[in-house]
Amino acid sequence: MYIKDTIVAISTALGEGAIGIVRLSGEEAVQIANKIIKGKNLEKVPSHTIHYAHVQDYHHHQIIDEVMVSVMLSPRTFTREDVVEINCHGGIIAVQQVLEAAMDAGARLAEPGEFTKRAFLNGRIDLSQAEAVMDLIEAKTSKAMQASVNQLQGSLSHKISSLRQKMLDTLAQVEVTIDYPEYDDVEELSSHQLLTTAQQVKAEINDLLQQAQHGKLFREGINTAIIGRPNVGKSSLLNVLTGYDKAIVTDIAGTTRDTVEEFVNVRGVPLHLIDTAGIRQTDEIVEQIGVTKSREVMKKADLIILILNQSEPLNETDIELLTLTEDKNRIILLNKQDLEPVVTQAQLEQYVDKTDLILTSMTEESGLDELEQQIYHRFFSGNIQTQDVTYLLNSRHVQLLKQAIQSLDEVIQGIELSLPVDLIQIDFTRAWDLLGEITGESVQDELLNKLFSQFCLGK
Ligand code: GDP
């Protein structure tokens, strides 16, 4: 595919970083950059070299910034086009001025994800790899990052391609069988071939989906609710988990406190803490409101941490919360162990399974190791370290895989009902097409645009 214009964008995160990068890609990347660079003729330098220079305003030739410029010529670049990267030093204003200078000199501001889109359109990466770039940018833990890197290197693509190849081989065999009708049992033989492959491919897709369960948790975090009546130690736990100094990093004055999101990393497991704003508001919330709120929060939670205060008798709210969480994935902390005990374990036994109960003291930070261990074991059966998170599937992948399974099921049913082979082939081919959409081999333009527009600007 031929893409004409040269695009430009700021590739680094906007902020007070020491260095900001303005990146150009396209046929005229070098010529355009050359118009604003002073002190070096970029059209004369070898590919993949970096040079000290100055950037100047396109119209008035005023110096904007002292820079290092990399020139990378097609095709050994991210987009497979000519790429120029200008490393600016002068903070955010300079980066923006350099961007504007490049636009004045003839480059067009890139749309979000357009660099990656070009990499895809020029055949440098496939669609699942392009999505991995996006995941890499958003990766919240190192495990998720590692899986994105794997995917970027093509692990999902390889897997899908090998499944599709297997299906294609089968389709070819069926064609051959049908073309040589000297066999008496053509229909039966073909059906058998289709059935075997459909079953094998279905099993492998199911494996992939299984892995996706973990992938989703890594990607989005485990939705975790910390509940309990006032003063039991909820915000103390929150502080221990997030680290005292971090508080609410995403809390910007004026934004609704309800949307504050916090992630903590427990032994490589990302927890997405729900409603931390509610917890941090230590105002005298009436207990009943507390319960109503807890109900709401609980609905969204994959994991509930219910805190009780062992230094005071259990009250109605405690019992209500214990009952409400009965069937949930919950961990109960019997907190304030450093104080005189009032509530005993024996007393709790009618409500709580012993394995769900952990004795803690937030002030002495005891019992927290056990809590972390519980979380870790619950979700990953204790082997997260060795678990290979090779595939990170997003919801688009999962949907396509499920649809493919549906088509394969139709193949299998069709064969059981002895439908004619050419009808069965239609479903089989549809499954093959659906898998192709994952890697972008059979994907429509509209979808492409939608996908790439989710990228950050400059990627
Ligand atoms: P929340 O209302 O549930 O968020 O409870 P807080 O975390 O604000 O704690 C209420 C009070 O209990 C604070 O003064 C904490 O310092 C104290 N607290 C929390 N956990 C413990 C604990 O394990 N032992 C003792 N002695 N005090 C605790």
Detailed description of the structure:
The chain is α/β, with parallel strands linked by helices and 459 residues long. 47% of the residues lie in helices and 15% in strands. The protein is built from 16 helices and 13 strands. The strands form two sheets. It has a seven-stranded mixed β-sheet with strand order 3-4-5-6-2-1-7. α10 packs parallel to α11. The longest helix is centred in the middle third of the chain and has 35 residues. It starts with 6 loop residues before the first strand and ends in a 7-residue tail after the last helix. About 6% of the residues have low confidence. Bound molecules: guanosine-5'-diphosphate. The site of guanosine-5'-diphosphate has 17 residues, from α8.
Task: Provide the fold topology.
Elements: E1 7-10, E2 20-25, H1 29-36, E3 37-38, E4 49-56, E5 63-72, E6 83-88, H2 91-104, E7 108-109, H3 114-121, H4 127-138, H5 142-152, H6 155-179, H7 186-220, E8 222-227, H8 234-242, E9 262-266, E10 269-274, H9 276-280, H10 287-300, E11 303-309, H11 316-324, E12 330-335, H12 345-348, E13 357-359, H13 368-380, H14 395-416, H15 421-439, H16 445-452
Parallel strand pairs: 1-7, 8-10, 8-11, 11-12, 12-13
Antiparallel strand pairs: 1-2, 2-6, 3-4, 4-5, 5-6, 9-10
The chain binds guanosine-5'-diphosphate.
Residues 228, 230-236, 279, 282, 335-336, 338-339, 361-363 line the site of guanosine-5'-diphosphate (GDP).
The helix content, as a percent range, equals 40-55%
Poorly predicted regions are: 244-260, 282-286, 382-388
Strand order of the largest sheet: 3-4-5-6-2-1-7
Question: How much of the polypeptide forms β-strand, as a percent range?
Answer: 15-25%
Mean pLDDT: 79
Main sheet attributes: strand count, strand direction, barrel closure: 7 strands, mixed
How many H/I helical runs? 16
